[in-house]
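Sample entry (71 residues):
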Amino acid sequence: MSAYELYAAEKLELDGLVESGYQIRSVQEGLDGADVRLVHPGLPEGEASLRLLTADARKYLTVLLLRERRP
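Predicted structure, serialized as tokens:
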């Protein structure tokens, strides 16, 4: 899998969760990637976690975080 294909897969998974109502709750950065924890406020068992390995996906995560925080 090429670097772009890996990024596209991570972005697609992240976009799918956000579009279905999940909100980013925490991000734990490490040397091997970023662990993202998401929660869905309307679902009692609505938790998801995701590991982003590519730098481009982690940059895209920052864009999503800024959009969530915008009034």
